[in-house]
Every structure is written in C-alpha cells, then in structure tokens.
Specification:
The protein is of the alpha+beta class. It has 2 domains: 45-186, 3-Layer(aba) Sandwich (Rossmann fold); 193-270, Beta Barrel (Lipocalin). It has 5 helices and 15 strands. Mean pLDDT is 90; it is low at 1-22.
Length: 271
C-alpha cells in the first residue's frame, strides 16, 4: 500500500512538473493560423524593409499596422526611429509583439494593443503599413481616404479595386517566394471644383483618387489638361505647352508655371 502511494505521488508530481513546463512555454504562432478577419501569414523581413523604404519612413513618422501579427513591421519601423502602433485582435499575438519589442529595447516606440482593426483610431498615422486581403482593404478605404493629405499607405501585394498605387517595388530572392511586392499610395488632397485664376480665367477639375481631369480656360480658349495628378497636397498638370506645379492648402493653390515665356507664379482660388 505504501509503495502504491509513493508511486502515485511521484506520478502526480511528474504530471504537475509537465503541466508547469507546458504553461511556461512561450506562445509560438503558426503560419496560416486563423484570425478574426484573415489568416496569419507574416511578411518576409526583406519585404518589410522594402515597404518602409518605399514609404520613406523616418524618425518623424507615426506608423500604424492593422492586423499587426507578431509586430515585425512596427518593430522594424521603430528601429528606424519612428513611433508605431500595432493593432491586433489575437491577445496572444499582442503579448508576443510586446515581448519582442521589449527584447529589442524598443518598447518606448513600438506599442501594441488588442483590438478590432475596423474600429481602431488611425487618425494620427503618417504611414499605414499593412498586409490585408482586398476585401479588408475595400472596407477600410473610406477611412484611409479621410486621412490627412500626404499620409502614405504601403501594402504587401494587395491593393484597392479602383485606386492605382503611386509606386511599386518588388523583392526577389531571400525569404520572398510569394506575395513579395510593396505597393504605395499617397492620400491626395481634394482638388475637385472650379478655380479662379484671376479675372475670367478658370481651372475646372474633377478627381478620381490622385488622378485629375479637366481644362484650363484662359480668355475664351479652353485647353484640356494632361498629366494631371495630386501627390498628397502637391498638384501638377499640363495645359498645352505649359506645365503647372503647385501646392493646395484648403481652397487655395499656389505654384509656378513653366513654358512659353519662361517661369511665372500662379495662384488659384476655389469658387
């Protein structure tokens, strides 16, 4: 009887030690594991760097990643001196991200919170660095378009149905074998409307994302615009042999026009 009791006690102790060891094992995510809105597939380190390069992330930026996973993009941005916020629905992923940021001595610049990416406050972002499916991106599109002009949105591979990227950069080799292209969008200012250039002269613009359409009326002559685009709050377009560049602030554009008689200043006010 005594031998059985000792054996049982030893067995219980072994089970307790095994359970304790299991409980202390760090959380390790699995590629392809399901999440609330997407499965987890991490962006290869080479592409993370390419995304940050394409968005020209510096110490002056505040980077937000929606569905931040293990936090690698925000931690990489923090290594460049930027501040960042990762929003992740899986609390175990959030805890892992915090541990990795602490281990890299970057907790002061890399913050991670548990939350729903569709409800997160992204208003302070200067850069959105994301890896989401097209359906997720389309749902988030109105919120991205409401960000301050000049905000950069950089994505791994997937984009928007009707919003073409401003730039692309591909990664070849290394850990990248699939989904290895960085896409960049720059949130454009709203330039649509009729603008007065003084007297009867007018600039008429319509806009689809960063692309502008319209005409310039000087006196009684209308000239259709070509190569007309917004890049953040910077505007450029050609009218005949003249090239206009400028900056939009509220309802005023100011800049320079080159061609014809040389270079001159121009100003337009939205009616």
């Amino acid at each position: 009887m005594k031998a059985r009791a000792v054996a049982a006690a030893c067995c219980l102790a072994a089970v307790s030690v095994t359970a304790a060891a299991t409980a202390q094992q760090p959380y390790t995510p699995t590629v392809g594991q399901p999440g609330k809105d997407v499965v987890w597939v991490p962006t290869p380190p080479e592409l993370v760097q390419t995304m940050l390069d394409l968005a020209r992330v510096t110490k002056d930026d505040y980077v937000i990643d929606l569905g931040s996973g293990d936090g690698r993009t925000i931690i990489a941005a923090a290594r460049r001196g930027a501040r960042g916020l990762g929003v992740e629905f899986n609390p175990e992923m959030v805890a892992l991200s915090r541990r990795l940021a602490e281990a890299a001595h970057l907790s002061d610049r890399a913050t991670f919170v548990q939350g729903d990416m569709f409800e997160a406050d992204i208003s302070k972002a200067t850069v959105m660095a994301i890896y989401l499916l097209p359906a997720n991106l389309e749902k988030l599109l109105p919120r991205f378009q409401a960000l301050a002009p000049g905000t950069r949105i950089v994505s791994n591979t997937f984009g928007f149905e009707e919003w073409d990227p401003d730039a692309r950069a591909a990664v070849e080799g290394g850990a990248c074998s699939n989904w290895c292209e960085a896409l960049l969008w720059i949130v454009p200012a709203s330039a649509a409307g009729v603008w007065s250039l003084g007297g009867p002269d007018t600039l008429t613009l319509t806009q689809l994302h960063q692309v502008l359409y319209g005409s310039l009326r000087i006196g009684d002559r209308d000239t259709p615009l070509t190569n007309a685009r917004m890049r953040g709050d910077h505007v450029t377009f050609s009218a005949g042999d003249r090239v206009y560049t400028g900056r939009l602030a509220g309802d005023t554009m100011t800049g320079t026009v080159t061609g014809g008689a040389g270079t001159a200043a121009w100003t337009a006010t939205r009616r």
